[in-house]
Amino acid sequence: MAVTTDPTEGAGAVTPPADEPRADAQRGRMGSEGTVLNVFSHGVLVLWALMVTLPLLWAVMSAFKTDREIFTSPWALPGSLNFDSWSRAWSQAHMGEYFLNSVVVVAGSLFGTMLLGSMAAYVLARFTFPGNRFIYFLFVGGMSFPVILALVPLFFVMKNMQLLDTYHGLILVYIAYSLPFTIFFLSGFFRTLPSSVAEAALIDGASHTRTFFQVMLPMAKPGLISVGIFNFLGQWNQYLLPTVLNVGDEDKKLLPQGLVALAVSQGYKGDWSGLFAGLVMAMLPVLAAYIVFQRQVQAGLTAGALK
Amino acid sequence: MQHGKYRFIAGFLILPLAIYGIFVISPFVQAVYYSFTDWTGLSPDFRVTGTENYRRLWNDDVFWTSVGHNVLLLLVLPLVTLGLGLFFAFMLNVGGRRRKNAAVAGVRGSGFYKIVYFFPQVLSIAIVALLFQFAYNPNSGALNSFLSAIGLDSVRPAWLGDPSLALWCVMAVMVWSNVGFYVVLFSAGMSSIPRDFYEAALLDGANRVQTFFRITLPLLWDTVQTGWVYMGIMALDSFAVVQIMTVGPGGPDYSTEVLSFYLYTKAFRDGQAGYATTLGVALLIVTLIFAGIVMKLGRRERLEY
């Protein structure tokens, strides 16, 4: 397909140049086409919306059912709301603990990622020094390599440093694997900020460090929010790294990992309602947070691809 | 001042660089080295065996099966996901009833659709995989009971238990969870295309299909290409979905075995760390070939507007 820089020229090739009355006639035809299309487009859009929501609703529904109901009538509404499964999942199946563990790890890693990422991005974006480009590409290059390739040696690096099955070890690894995107995104952002403000601060006697924390970071807030949401979701939902690096005690697992462990153990016990309750428990907070902050979340997650 | 500046730079860079070096760079470099050894991962002793792992790889049927599956995923997933994403995004932005003085209009409630479509994207892939593992359950799953409900009792496939269906089931889940991301991404791109372009095309008598292929797609090409790379990397990984959803090692009869999961079983179940890193290097090569092809095929004249 030939692409021309002038789209009207490209579209002009579609039909021979039309004179006035013909253009009017076409507009009339297009009008009815618009109505048909409108019905069609609503149809497919609703269909996909159903395909997205039905599995989720099905899980919520099943969480309130008894095990018997789940097996005999998977699509029927629960006969009565059954909350036992929820308390079983929360206490006996450690879901409460998994949730807390995830909060601890992600709080640490998100703070570390944002702090270290913005520091490095700032220096790389706004200072010239020998090796700047090399370090930048060293970081950014990490985005294009699959994590799984490094997994085996990473496991033994952690083991040798006695970091295996510890939260601080996991936090360090999360930070390390979040740095490439964070630095890539934020250094682009820091580059667009005006330099006059930073210069004014320096002239007023602020140190470089102080200028960064008190002047530049507040100015970079929109970028920090975007990349923060991106990192939060990525780290909260991380499955591969804890599966390999956090295999110690049963109750030290993180949420996604613990959920899978729960699926295996409850599967043996046949406690399906407890399992669905656990699943919904893990699902709802994220969905609720997303619905509240949906604009920011969509912007944050797609920011990297739009740049 | 100069002295202060360098101290500041070093102070800000040292910690990120150290963490990155220890946990990212060094494992990557070691991976290449260990791929030439017979290291088990269980004991600290190993020998350098040269290219033996690579020769073993060449004759490993399971390896080639997984490469085949990865290539299939690589071809099908981006095509279907990006196709659906583009289609829905176009419907949302241009598919609406035409209003006065507007050449194109979005459908009513497009904001609502975008919110709903994005749901799977914020969920952990572990949650999604578990959810569908239950939905695919042949006895009590949502799918088969739905089939029974509409009178197709005789069909009821085994889904993940059926070697010829299992991989497609996995793919469907990955499409399901990723389409929303691309709808939002492409919508953002489409809304930045000037309305005059559509108006001009309309005056020239172009219909919607022509408008899509002649205006929307070319102007969106950069975003589509980025999306293609993202989705391709997703297809090359697909570890969580395969590990959680499929039964046994790599599904029935290795029907869902992919490189990432094969690597994981070799390293952490079979105690063949050296061979596992060889698989990792192979995966890296496939990734690089893929990226190269996308870059080469995708190169087009950049449009400024």
UniProtKB/TrEMBL annotation, chain A:
CDD domains: TM_PBP2 (cd06261). PROSITE patterns: ABC_TM1. It holds the Pfam family BPD_transp_1. Keywords: Cell membrane, Membrane, Transmembrane, Transmembrane helix, Transport. The keyword Transmembrane applies. GO terms for biological process: transmembrane transport. SUPFAM superfamilies: MetI-like. Residues 99-293 form the ABC transmembrane type-1 domain. GO terms for cellular component: plasma membrane. InterPro entries: MetI-like, MetI-like_sf. The chain crosses the membrane at residues 39-60, 98-122, 134-157, 169-190, 272-293. It is a multi-pass membrane protein. Residues 1-28 are annotated as: Disordered. It is found in: Cell membrane. Belongs to the binding-protein-dependent transport system permease family. This is Sugar ABC transporter permease.
TrEMBL record, chain B:
CDD domains: TM_PBP2. This is Sugar ABC transporter permease. Gene3D superfamilies: MetI-like (1.10.3720.10). The chain crosses the membrane at residues 12-36, 71-94, 115-136, 165-185, 228-252, 272-295. One of its GO terms (cellular component) is plasma membrane. Pfam families: BPD_transp_1. It is a multi-pass membrane protein. Keywords: Cell membrane, Membrane, Transmembrane, Transmembrane helix, Transport. It is found in: Cell membrane. Its main location: membrane. One of its GO terms (biological process) is transmembrane transport. PANTHER family: ABC TRANSPORTER PERMEASE PROTEIN (PTHR30193), DIACETYLCHITOBIOSE UPTAKE SYSTEM PERMEASE PROTEIN NGCF (PTHR30193:SF41). Belongs to the binding-protein-dependent transport system permease family. Residues 67-294 form the ABC transmembrane type-1 domain. It comes from the Bacteria.
